Amino acid sequence: MISMSTMTDLSPSRPRHWTTWLTLIVSAAGLIVVVWAAVSDWGGVVHGHPAYAVLLGATAALCILTAVLALRTREHRRGVWRLVGRIALTVLAIAWIALIAWLKPHTAVEPALAAMESDSAVTVVESATDIVLKPSSGGSGPGVFFQPGALVDARAYAAVLRPLAEAGHTVVIAKQPLGIGFLALGAFDGARTQHPEVTSWVVGGHSLGGTVAAIEATADGATDVSGLLLFASYPATDISDADLAVSSISGTEDGLSTPAKIEESRANLPAGTVFVVVDGASHAQFGSYGLQAGDGTPTISNEDARQQIADASVGFVDSIGR
């Protein structure tokens, strides 16, 4: 005689609920995004601040765990609120995956990668949180602390900033957590501690990094900051009364920090600010990381733009504290 329990065991398994399939699809999408980000911009992930790599690893682990639990969990009758909760979690998971994709860095390309090599003139030291370009001769004059643009590999600025080190200035390029300058507001304090021999600083940055640099340069206690160097950038607030030497370097073909925005920033900067306009330069030409969405089309070569930007930067920093 066959018992009821045996009959239950022999009955066909119930088809999986549609929410289980949705969970599996979202988990697979998350894994695909993680692999895509890691493979397509491996250099930017490995050489960037570790926060993004940790985020990718945690996301991959969570996607795998979620998929396994979805496959192993027995189907039960679902109430309305349980269904609503599961859908809400799915929406949050999709938003998280979209954020992970958006945070994918713009990886450095040549000649920035070549500029990361030490030679007889400049010693390059890379850590998990910054890149230091130090004059082999010991250096003199103010040091330069630089904040990259949003989501840009810090190495992308090595070529345009290396001439400053060759001119005798210690250069520190921050590696921002998740590529966001506002998450690296404490990095300048770290550079000061790391380089006590530097008694005067020029704080600079590209795009959003320049906005963050303006905050750092005008913060309470920033008495050792003598200059502000803006690459295609402008402050978020009025700093016109700041006792700082300021140089604003911009490009005529910049589609993000447009010439109109740079012109509007004059009112928020000190009266003595030096404005340098590189005719034909775009936003992405202030670093070496390829094209950038929303940017204009440059009418000069990357080499020409980089040389003009570097020359203007060296001339500005050299003029301070000599």
Description:
- The radius of gyration is 25 Å and the shape is elongated.
- Helix 2 runs antiparallel to helix 4, helix 2 runs parallel beside helix 5 and helix 6 runs parallel beside helix 10.
- The protein has an eight-stranded mixed sheet, sandwiched between helices.
- Helix content is 41%, strand content 14%.
- It is built from ten helices and eight strands.
- It is an alpha/beta fold and 322 residues long.
- The protein has two domains: 87 residues, no CATH class; 205 residues, Rossmann fold, CATH 3.40.50.1820.
Cα Rg = 25 Å
CATH architecture of the largest domain: 3-Layer(aba) Sandwich
Which structural class do you get from the secondary structure elements? alpha/beta
- Based on DSSP secondary structure assignment, what is the total number of beta strands? 8
CATH third-level topology of the largest domain: Rossmann fold
Task: List the domain count as a whole number.
Answer: 2
Straight-line N-to-C gap: 101 Å
Largest sheet: 8 strands, mixed
**Strand order across the largest sheet:** 1-2-4-3-5-6-7-8
CATH class categorisation of the largest domain: Alpha Beta
From N to C, what is the helix and strand string? HHHHHEEEHEHEHEEHEH
The amount of helix comes to: 40-55%
Oligomer: single chain
Low-confidence stretches: 1-12
Fraction of residues in β-strands: 5-15%
Looking at CATH, the homologous superfamily of the largest domain is Alpha/Beta hydrolase fold, catalytic domain
